[in-house]
Amino acid sequence: MPHYICVACGIQYAESAEPPPECPVCTDERQYVPDAGQQWTTLHRLQTDHTNAIRPQRELTGIGTEPKFAIGQRALLVPFGDSNLLWDCITLLDDDTAAEIERRGGLAAIAISHPHYYSTMVEWATRFDCPVHLHADDRRWAVREDPALQFWSGETKTLGHGLTLIRGGGHFAGGTMLHWAQGDGALLSGDIVQVIPDRRHVGFMYSYPNLIPLPESSVSAIVEAMEPFRFEPIYGAWWDAIVPRDGTDVVRRSAERYARALRGELPPGA
Length: 270
Prior knowledge:
Elements: E1 5-6, H1 24-27, E2 40-41, H2 43-49, E3 51-57, E4 60-66, E5 75-80, E6 83-87, H3 95-103, E7 109-111, H4 121-128, E8 132-135, E9 149-152, E10 156-160, E11 163-167, E12 176-180, E13 186-190, E14 194-195, E15 202-203, H5 216-226, E16 234-236, E17 242-243, H6 247-262
Helix pairs in contact: 5-6
């Protein structure tokens, strides 16, 4: 039986003879069901008309699907000892992609920021024989169970080789960021902290497509979770969505601006 994949969000479900009646990830108010209705595909079908681009993202390597599929995020390969950690995940996995990753040292682990990027994580874990680190607060969104899924709890998880998972919450209860201690440090934020066109700031939202803001307390909690860590670049979830420098100050400054906006303290003349 096939493992059906939601076309709108890219998440793969447990095997079934027929597609699920709905995708709970998309019926949740943080996502949406397109006007055309719920549609399904499979990994095999996706492999016939999509491919993955692999290209540099500053010091890291990005992997993203062309043409765009589902939400459209790109994943990142992060050095992890003699191998790599895959940060966030994309739905398409094919032989060419796997071969390119193996050429770069393979995967020793996968870590994902939040359920919108769970995609075909079990396929990736199976192909590379590695664990997937997910926060336990988001366990109910893991709609295809597998022993490779390792749920961690608490506020941080040290992975080794300078990598630490940080629970920021906000967008999802278990919303996770990855700190890379290499050099002056880097933050891989998914969209728990969203890299926006104005690279002097970042954004925070409960739902990005539906424009539902977070309360000030949630944004403060995200900033507090990052307080022990220093970082220069911030890597967001999309191609070239990178704050190049001063990441720690950018997050603090953006949180202060967000709080002022919620309080109605807009600039003069706005």
